[in-house]
Amino acid sequence: MLEFVWNSEERTLASVLKTCIAQANKIDIAVAFLNSKGLSCLEGELQAALDRGCVMRFFVGTDFYLTDPKALRHLEQTFKQQGKSKLFLVGQSTKNTFHPKIYAFEGDDAITVIVGSANLTRGGLSDNREACCILSAPLVSELHERVNLLLSEYESAADVEEATVWEIERYAAAYRAFHKHIKRAREKVDKEIPKMDEGKLQTWLDMYRNDKSEQDNYRVRKDNYQVARELLDQLASGNVADEMQFRAIWERLIGSQGLWYSDYIYRRGYEAVRSFDKVCQLVKAIRDHEDTPPRRLFELGDQYASQITGLGPNALTEMLNTYYPRKCAVLNKNPLTALSYFGLSDFPEQSAFKGKDYERFNRVITHIKNRCGFESMGQADHFLSFVYWKVKPRETG
């Protein structure tokens, strides 16, 4: 027989286990995690089974220090009083994790096995969204044979040993030390990484939409990037003959009053004049690959940019955004800082960006663009720059 069970208002795994325990002569349980609340769900039924002579084996994992030492102490003492049942601890390994959730019950003439996602915890047995299969077969069956074979392998494994007071207290000491550090780590994360929620984003979006000067500035930016595209087309045309002609165009893009919005490009960008021919080749390569995905465009551009002093990811992505404002985001400290403010700080320094990093960054900016109803990646960048300039004084002051 095969049955499917999950935790619901009508029926929980705990209720199924209670029924199985009441009918069993032998019980084998192998779980990754055990805690006192989970054990308390079944405590009455387990004690009644032990009192009538039911033999039990529990295999409990210790990985990630999620198993509760109090539950281990209680089981060890209870089994010791009965004298027949055994508790086994599975040691931690760097190679694999002990992760089964097996509940096997032998009756007079049949075996019932419950296998699924539920650990022996309150969440696993009643609260969590778990899913398990219930299999039943005669005692003389392949199911019975294979379950016993697996459990025998567990019992004889080198990293499995019968729990003693000594071993449990050793684990308890490590458990306490681990959770002390975990608590500090959580406090540090809560302090350093702000929570990103829709309400916070919406608040900033409302501020941005209601700021008339920002909206006026964005309209100017749109016009500037149209002009910037025309200038890039001149660079890609093959008609730029010398540094002087290149500088006249390039300065309009990166100068102190340039069409692109980046101080860093202004500070470093003039060094690229010495490699003007490679810059022109780069621009042409970007323009000629309109149907190429953003990651590949970044990688293609980076092949050229790596040979050009003064031209990094910032200028490269300005080119990408100028040509493809709906799919390519601008990469500089402004959006990266704003994303960090929103809790999305797992990006490298912009100078260390690779294609895969730009792809992930681009997906985040695309999400913001769509979530906020922006018309382009350029407007998303403009919004994030708005956030950056508002929060920057708090960080540096």
What percentage of amino acids are in beta strands?
5-15%
Computed over alpha carbons, the radius of gyration is 32 Å
Globally, the shape reads: elongated
Helix content class: 55-70%
Strand order of the largest sheet: 1-7-6-5-2-3-4-8
- List the domain count as a whole number: 2
Which class do the helix and strand fractions yield? alpha+beta
Averaged pLDDT: 92
The biggest sheet, with number of strands, parallel, antiparallel or mixed sense and barrel status, is:
8 strands, mixed
The separation of the N and C termini measures 69 Å
Q: How many alpha or pi helices?
A: 16
The count of β-strands is: 8
Q: Which sequence of SSEs, written as H and E, runs from N to C?
A: EHEHEHEEEHEHEHHHHHHHHHHH
Q: Low-confidence parts, pLDDT < 50 over ≥5 residues?
A: none
Précis, in short:
The chain has about 400 residues and is of the alpha+beta class.
Question: Strands, helices and their partners?
Answer:
Elements: E1 2-5, H1 13-22, E2 26-31, H2 36-51, E3 55-61, H3 69-82, E4 86-90, E5 101-106, E6 110-116, H4 122-127, E7 132-138, H5 142-156, E8 160-162, H6 165-192, H7 198-209, H8 212-236, H9 243-254, H10 263-268, H11 276-287, H12 294-305, H13 313-323, H14 333-341, H15 355-372, H16 377-396
Parallel strand pairs: 2-3, 3-4
Antiparallel strand pairs: 1-7, 2-5, 4-8, 5-6, 6-7
Helix pairs in contact: 1-2, 2-3, 3-6, 8-9, 8-11, 11-12, 12-13, 12-15, 14-16, 15-16
